Amino acid sequence: MSIVDPRSGAPLTPPEPAPSPAAAPSDEQLIIDVDRNNIQQVLEFSTQVPVLLDCWAPWCEPCKTLMPILEKLTREYNGAFILAKLNIEDNQDIAAQLGVRSVPDVKLISQGGLVDHFQGALPEKEIREWLGRYFPAPEDAPASPEEQAAEALAQGDAETARTLYEELVQQHPEHYAYQVELARALVAQERSGEALALLDNLPPEERDAAPARGVRASVEFREEAPTGEELEALAGRDDSEAQFKRALRQVADGHYEAGLEALLKLMQADRAYGDDVARKTLLRVFDALGAEHPLTVTYRRRLFTLLY
């Protein structure tokens, strides 16, 4: 039994994964509208190729954010699955049978049965990770906006990172991680006041969590670090104060590994300096970098070894 696209009336056949863009399946093959006339055929069709069923409604703003992402990924995966779009407002009986209680609700159907689903307008990166559980990633897949923003920030292109994070915040206002990363990009642009104001407006649980604390710490490091003139005045000195101030400057400038190494050595040589300030500053740098950062993992382990 073939599926008929309600937009064109043409029968659809399972799309074959294409070896090259020139042979890519058309939108009519990959993306269809579903209603009561063809929902049963869609379920049967899933025995030949998996179906991503996007349950949406015209009044749902998150649905409008999510749908273009799903369409983009469907084209990118090039026939690994088809995207079927169900307007629950026009097909309330089907939505009830499928157990749809809120939208957007995206269901992966294969062999006529539900494999998995997610609800809400997830960011593109999370959708890619979800799809990655079931389908091999396409060759030469473009980086997600999140990955592009993170890469730009890592390469020192704070302007590009800020622009990308602003777009992500606009698309996903309740995904607070984007607001934290936007604040990080603002700090890199020497716009610390705006960054702190953004963090202050987060819900308390997000404002006090490690990522936001880390951005605040990076602002504090910039404020506490010695100026160029102060560093020149320390030339030739190798006492604990000079070592600590140089380490602060390295951290404030983003030379985290050098700063962490200097702080660890200072702690080992003069634990009492500044009421154990070297150890306390190490912990603040870990906060700034995040728990999963490779430098945090490495130097936290070395700190533990030194202490115990």
Automatic annotation (TrEMBL):
Residue numbers spanned by region Disordered: 1-25
Domain Thioredoxin: residue ranges: 12-136
Pfam families the record matches: Thioredoxin, TPR_19, TPR_20
GO molecular function per UniProt: protein-disulfide reductase activity
GO terms for cellular component: cytoplasm
Keywords: Disulfide bond, Electron transport, Redox-active center, Transport
Domain of life, source organism: Bacteria
Compositional bias ranges of the Pro residues kind: 12-22
CDD domains: ybbN
Biological processes, Gene Ontology terms: response to stress
Protein name, UniProt field: Thioredoxin
Organism: Halomonas chromatireducens
Gene field: trxA_2
